Give the backbone structure.
Amino acid sequence: DIQMTQSPSSLSASVGDRVTITCRASQGISNYLAWFQQRPGKAPKSLIYAASHLQSGVPSKFSGSGSGTDFTLTISSLQPEDFATYYCQQYYDHPLTFGGGTKVEI
Amino acid sequence: VQLLESGGGLVKPGGSLRLSCAASGFTFNTYSMTWVRQAPGKGLEWVSSISSSTDNYIYYADSVKGRFTISRDNAKNSLYLQMNSLRVEDTAVYYCVKDGSSGWYGAHWGQGTQVTVSS
């Protein structure tokens, strides 16, 4: 199975900050990497697929990069609604696997 | 896109439940579908996926293999998860997920249904 490791597991930031979250795969997954946002008590929401493609309707302050084993999600200029938990997921192969999550707190 | 799960509830260990997901707003039979669960206070865990009607692929997490069965009824635009031999560790919110057009990633998620396994 492909293991997905996210770092950090949590971070504190302020409104207006730029934030970067890292996701590392235990083996190469090309660009088969997605990012999700989950606000407390809500279902996850798709942000990015294919490592860097923005899901329809997602604001451009979210961006993704990477290929192979190392990936990043960047949020420019954090807003109050961006404080949430973020997950990466590889879909290169089954079983599909998620990172452990990164909680972005104020 | 709308995904509406139902069928969750409280069940004793060893019991069974059948989750349903009513899909609308897209051409259901052209997309693969997935179930993902989230135990209380934990992260996301993939459970099972089923390919679109043009293929015939089904996948299960090892933790549910042999106990859970995923299926779909394209005529009813519905996805199902039959869960047998339920264990306490199956307690979670179960999400119905529509995969993307270019891969097994969750482009759209339902609101989830709670499954609690407890004596």
The mean pLDDT of chain B is 96. Chain B touches chain A through 23 residues (CB under 8 Å).
